Amino acid sequence: MRTKDFLDKLEHDRIVSAIKTAEANTSGQIRVYVQRGELAREPLIAAQKKFQKLGMQATRERNGILIFVVPRARKFAVIGDEGIHQKCGDEFWEQLVERMRAHFQKENFTDALVEAIEEAGKLLSRHFPKTAPPQNELSDEIVEG
């Protein structure tokens, strides 16, 4: 699928609202990144590189989560920084990806992203509850590149 078509189908406001809501009860940070063009490597490796490029490892508690989507390649990955990954392990990410895949196969792209954001937010609020005044370390907007 062309990236433009994918982006046109997304309900951007609903996704951004889901991020803001998910982050309201946690110090964790969630980002959605949509990559244009093809994918030269495995999505998980590409997501890890993008995580670093976006500076997501710079959160105070190392609790950032990246949802990485490459529409043209029909691939995606979800990764969490070391702080959150230590709390949930691989199983959480695998289950999250499977639920997203089911939505993506039906072209329910916004539902896939919103559900993943909500689940990530629940995980983050359980392990990294908000203890200080709100501080948004990363933009909530969908990042395109």
What's the layout of helices and strands?
Elements: H1 3-9, H2 12-23, E1 29-34, H3 43-53, E2 64-70, E3 75-80, H4 82-105, H5 109-127, E4 143-144
Parallel strand pairs: 1-2, 1-4
Antiparallel strand pairs: 2-3
Unreliable parts: none
Return the average pLDDT rounded to an integer.
92
Please give the number of β-strands: 4
CATH topology, which one? Diaminopimelate Epimerase, Chain A, domain 1
Q: Given the C-alpha coordinates, what overall shape results?
A: globular
Give the helices and strands as they follow along the chain: HHEHEEHHE
Task: Characterise the protein shown here.
The chain has 145 residues and is α/β, with parallel strands linked by helices. It has helices spanning 3-9, 12-23, 43-53, 82-105, 109-127, and strands at 29-34, 64-70, 75-80, 143-144. Strand 2 (64-70) and strand 3 (75-80) form a beta hairpin. Helix 2 runs parallel beside helix 5 (109-127) and helix 4 runs antiparallel to helix 5 (109-127). The chain is globular and about 40 Å long. 34% of the residues are buried. The mean pLDDT is 92.
Sum up the structure in keywords.
145 residues, alpha/beta, 4-stranded mixed β-sheet, 5 helices
